[in-house]
Task: structure prediction
Amino acid sequence: MSAPESTLVLDVPAWVDVEAPPGHRYREDDEKMALVIRLSSENVSRGAGGPFAAAVFEIGSGRLVAAGVNSVVRLQNCVLHAETMAIMLAQRRVGSFSLRAPALPAHELVTSCEPCAMCLGATLYSGVRRLVIAATRDDATAVGFDEGPVFPQSYTYVADRGIEIVWNVKRAEATRVLRAYREGGGVIYNADPTPPAIG
Amino acid sequence: MSAPESTLVLDVPAWVDVEAPPGHRYREDDEKMALVIRLSSENVSRGAGGPFAAAVFEIGSGRLVAAGVNSVVRLQNCVLHAETMAIMLAQRRVGSFSLRAPALPAHELVTSCEPCAMCLGATLYSGVRRLVIAATRDDATAVGFDEGPVFPQSYTYVADRGIEIVWNVKRAEATRVLRAYREGGGVIYNADPTPPAIG
Result:
């Protein structure tokens, strides 16, 4: 009965799983974030989307569950930030709407930039126990992105639900990718998009 | 190169487009909300998901662009609230990541319950100009749902970006659906899910 436009087929580009093979183990926040920032940079250099990437890992083993890259413009869908992509793919792979489901190990979300309002909400519902952040809201705002209604008490709320938050892991490297995207004329895909910068 | 688990295939159940035919015109907030609440109720009675529905309409013509129902448990994906489903399908149908794209008429999101933190962010990015709400955060919290970090200043933020917010359209009817879901033992699919009510 469904028309074809009633089905959404969403994916990350094939190179994501090549660069970031699910099941591979990564050690420490620095190594995980280096991977995520490399994906954000590849997303820009390949013209695949915005300068953001994120990945879900098992905290104990360091095993990569799923990586996501920003896909808003590629798939013409404002929900497809890097974090939502990584969370949706991770939940698909573990077969649960919560990464805190009883049989599962603890999970964390590592993101190249502080989550926007939508993605902070998705982080809360995802069931991750830990959120690791590189660039900040100010860094994203500086290149033109609207990060939405996130306030200091938003973080209190999330922390109260058992999510540890780690800031400033490789912030400078992640911010360089944001700036390169803007300087390269990347679309700033807010609701009222900013025209590409002229070269 | 992608493994099958690298593709997400997301849809609303086929009966949604039968009950809410895209292109049909609805008049006034009351008629639009009656449709949305009927979908939320059907989602529960058919065992398809949580007690929430939402739809995107063209403001001027009243034409329905896309309807969504909560699909978190059905598709095991915490991002798939009614609002994100409706927004993603609407953007698919108009072919743009913003419902404010230059060639498009103005759009609105009509939702059976106040958006959670994730969906309020998605509303901001969607490009809708108007948000119409039935049940409130308190009504959803009363049956056990975690609505996330939304504060009074969140609404100031969203209003400042040109989104009109309309409250309390058929709130009592929408709240009855929330209560019926809880009383029927529906899963409260927070990150730490509440076990179904007994009896």
